[in-house]
Design a protein that fits this description.
The chain contains 14 helices and five strands. By secondary structure, it is α/β, with parallel strands linked by helices. It has a five-stranded parallel β-sheet.
Length: 356
């Protein structure tokens, strides 16, 4: 049987008529130019003027740390919202050893992992002491960092201050996506924050619509608290129950990753020539009885680390009464004053510290 093969036909290209090509080019070109122009305006005009929204404090902190801290000697307070809401450095200075000054660098929701990211740049600004506070539930797991924050730390120059050779393995608790964001390029950072203007508008609306919130400049290193109200009765009880549940859940996970990271942070502060100051953070009376075994363990751990690293351990756990809290975690105005003055007095051992 004879097989009849189809003749091979060379493919031919069909050129679009010029009358069709020009409109297509215009359809593609103008949107592309608009997108590029929008990105340029965002990067060169909007972000430098308005910042990157809720994480602008991170970027501003990086810029602040480009120069040595003044006046010296300085104590740099790190931590989360408990420190941000609870420490007024003007009051700390009033009761601290003569000549010493404090700055509050706390970032809301900052974990020990986040402090690990911050610390090399903090130390590059040559604080004479670095203080950070902990609660019992911080001793177990270590937490990842929000992606917005990770890009902001990269934008603020924190990664550039890391020791040579640091890798993902040096950052316990940090996920792969977070590590990539920390190591991101300036272009990737700008693209990530393309929605910053909307974020800024949302923040402004939140402050205006919710009474009791204080608008704070992102570069406030003195009294950066936002809460100007206290919750009571049913709302307070619900908050206490929520915090109790969160603490129990974290403590049930066990492990000592947080304890190990605390040792690492204190050792790095000491190695840099600064004094580590380890604080047992204030705890609402509603939690103290149930948390007692964990509190005892925390006090023992921080005392031991402070001794090993030539530091100071400050026990502020029961320095505040129930009516000196704004909610289940944060001091109110009266609590802020008591806690800040207490910290200043507790820094008395620094009076004999030799300054670099």
């Amino acid at each position: 049987m004879t097989t009849i093969e189809e003749p091979l036909v060379e493919p031919t290209s069909v050129a679009l008529p010029t009358s069709l090509l020009r409109p297509i080019v215009r359809m593609l070109l103008w949107p592309a130019l608009g997108a590029v122009l929008g990105l340029v305006l965002l990067v060169k005009v909007v972000l430098p003027t308005f910042g990157v929204g809720s994480v602008e404090r991170v970027v501003q902190l990086g810029r602040h740390l480009d120069q040595p801290l003044t006046p010296a000697p300085s104590v740099a307070f790190l931590g989360n919202s408990i420190t941000r809401e609870g420490v007024d450095t003007r009051l700390v200075d009033e009761t601290a050893p003569a000549g010493w000054h404090a700055q509050n660098f706390a970032i809301s929701a900052a974990s020990l992992s986040e402090m690990r990211v911050q610390l090399p740049k903090i130390l590059s600004a040559r604080p004479a002491a670095v203080a950070f506070g902990l609660r019992p539930e911080d001793m177990g797991r270590v937490d990842d960092i929000d992606l917005d924050k990770a890009f902001a730390y990269a934008m603020g120059g924190f990664v550039a201050a890391w020791p040579e050779g640091w890798t993902h393995a040096d950052l316990p608790g940090i996920g792969s996506a977070t590590y990539d964001a920390l190591r991101s390029s300036p272009l990737a950072q700008d693209l990530h924050f393309r929605t910053a203007p909307l974020n800024i508008i949302n923040q402004e609306v939140r402050v205006r619509l919710r009474s009791g919130l204080r608008k704070v400049a992102p570069d406030n290193w003195t009294d950066p608290y936002e809460l100007a109200f206290s919750v009571r009765d049913e709302r307070l009880q619900r908050h206490i129950e929520s915090i109790q549940h969160d603490m129990e859940m974290r403590l049930s996970e066990g492990g000592d990753a947080g304890a190990q990271l605390t040792k690492t942070l204190a050792a790095e502060i000491h190695a840099a020539g600064s004094t580590p100051v380890l604080i047992v953070l204030p705890m609402h009376p509603a939690f103290r009885a149930s948390m007692q075994p964990h509190i005892t363990a925390l006090r023992s751990l921080l005392g031991r680390i402070a001794q090993e690293e030539s530091g100071i351990m400050i026990d502020a756990l029961d320095v505040l009464a129930a009516d000196e809290y704004a909610d289940a975690l944060h001091p109110n105005a009266a609590g802020r004053e008591i806690y800040s003055r207490f910290l200043g007095r507790a820094l008395a051992p620094l009076s004999g510290t030799s300054i670099r």
